[in-house]
Structures are given as C-alpha cells and as structure tokens.
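CORE FACILITY INTAKE
Project code: CF-77B
Contact: R.S. (postdoc)
Sample description: multi-component assembly, two entities in total
Requested service: structural model of the whole complex
Turnaround: standard
Below are the sequence entries exactly as provided by the requester. Do not edit them.
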Amino acid sequence: RGPGIQDPGPWSLELKEAFALFQIQFNRSYTSAAEQAHRLLIFAHNLAQAQRLQEEDLGTAEFGVTMFSDLTEEEFGQLYGHQMVAGAVPNVSREVVSEAGGES
Amino acid sequence: LPLTCDWRKVHGVILPVRNQGNCRCCWAMAAVGNIEALWGIRNHKSVELSVQELLDCDRCNNGCNGGFVWDAFMTVLNNSGLASEKDYPFQGTKEPQECLAKKYQKVAWIQDFFMLPANEDRIAQHLATHGPITVTINKKLLMQYKNGVIKSTHAQCNPEIVDHSVLLVGFGRSEKEEEEGKQESRPRPRRSIPYWILKNSWGESWGERGYFRLHRGSNTCGLTKYPVSARVGLPTKKTRVSCP
C-alpha cells in the first residue's frame, strides 16, 4: 500500500518490490515484459482497491495482497465461483415448519 | 441458541479445505462438504466424498463451468449416493469426463435436500442443532480478503448478486478491540461483532487457513439468499445434535 498507487506511473520502487514479493509468494511468472507490466498495473489497482475496502469495512477484516492480486475483477469473476443465480431460483420450497415438527 | 458454534471442533466432521484451482466447482465442493459433515455427525464416521462424480454426472453437464448446489444434491439423489474421493478423485479438468458413477461403490447418500428460511437466527439454530449448511454469497470482497470479520453495506457487497457457494460451519462473536488496536495505550469501548464462520474452497493458504468470517445479522453479501442443505437420515425428532 505504498506511495505511487494513486498515480499510475512511473511506478515507485516500493510498489515494484511489493509486486516482486507477490510473484515469489504465489509463484507467478509472465510470458512477456508487456504482460508483466500489465499485471503490475492490475496489482497496483487491486492494492488501491484493498486500501479502499480497508477504510470502508465496518468489521475487523484485513484486506490486502492475496493470490488474486494480479487478476482483474472480471478475470476473478470468470475463474472462480459459479454463474450468477439471480433469476434462476430453484424449484425448492423453503423449509417453513417448526424444527420440532421435523417434516417439510 | 448457543453463543458460539464451531463444527470444526468435532473430529471427522469438517474435512480439510479443498482447492478448486481454475475449476468453477465451488457449488460441488460446498455440497460435498455439507454431506461429509452431516454424515460425520450422524454416523460418527469420516468420509471424503467425490467432487469429480458431481462434475461428471451433473445433469447440466457443465463440469468446471459452474453450477448450483441443488444440482449437486439432485445428482447425489439420482445416483443413489456418492463415491469416495479416493475412488473417484478430483481432476479439475475444464471439460467434464465420462460419468463413472456406476463404477464405484457408494460410501454416503442423502434422503432429501431443502432450503432454509432467509433468516439468520433460523439459520444459526439449524446450524447448531443439525450441522453445517451451504450458502451462496457475493464473492466480491473475498478477492482482497486476508483475515478478520467482513462487515459491509449492501452497496459495497450486493446481497442480490450471489455467485459463490461455500459451507457455513459455525458462528461466534469477536471483540473488535481484541483484533485491532491492541497497541493503543488509551482503552476504547469494546464492540462485540457477531460473525459466521465459512469454509471456502480456495485452499488453506487463502484467508484464515481456508476459512473466512462474515458479519452475522446484516445479510452480509447475501448469505441468506440460498441457505441449502442435504438431509442425511430420516427427519425424526432424534436427529437433533449439539454443536460444540
């Protein structure tokens, strides 16, 4: 969360070091210098986002660098979780009987 | 309703955290975790069940391309049970493989599945007296999550857009001051934060050793939208258990 995040470039040494640490920690390597630069840009964006979440969180959560820090939100959404279920309500009734009854 | 509940404390109920990798199979892993836990509670027997069978034999045949918890339970019912993880191991391949359900012996089965009311007290009550259940949440905040209790507004995490299924394994309360600002010399008023404990499927290196916590009582990230569980054993009064 060092300086340089608000201003997208030139990247600060601190940010580059954080990204290098991330690559080591999560065993990340990229196929080209362009890809490396692209992922650094996303990493910086995600750090800024984590900082924002940290400020807005009403609980005790800590946000920061994770295994997903080099992914865009769209990539994260496509790679993990499942399809959206909004509008696809299953044909299952909610259990409304009392616990003592034991029958639905 | 007990103040706290954590099914991880019972040996053989909550099995090790899985890692879905690049396979979008959270729905199958959550469903399998639910059956494993209920089987462990009811039968006092730890069984690691096959996620791959659910992926290969799902009626939608989507494999790693997403699915729903209720489809997983339908598959278990249609196949009259589930094979073990040992016999039918997780591959994580993008395309579904041939369904080999008939090839392997079933080691666990379910009677039914159902959805609980969208009420956090009822969900807690069921969790404490019957066992872990699956929930489907908005995973947006999990991307940057490291530890602690997430408490957000609905604007930050829309409870209507749910896209990630996980297993609810317990609940409790934390003292906010205990988790932050320990080094502060001036004492501050304590704020007790009720939370849910959830088991994710992104490996043990993510979050709190594969788990995370959400605020309890504010439908954080849509937790109450689809609380679904299998039913293991017949629905009798004797099926109530007690969460540690």
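Facility notes:
- The helical segments of chain B are 26-43, 51-57, 69-78, 120-129, 176-179.
- DSSP finds five helices and nine strands in chain B.
Invoice: internal transfer
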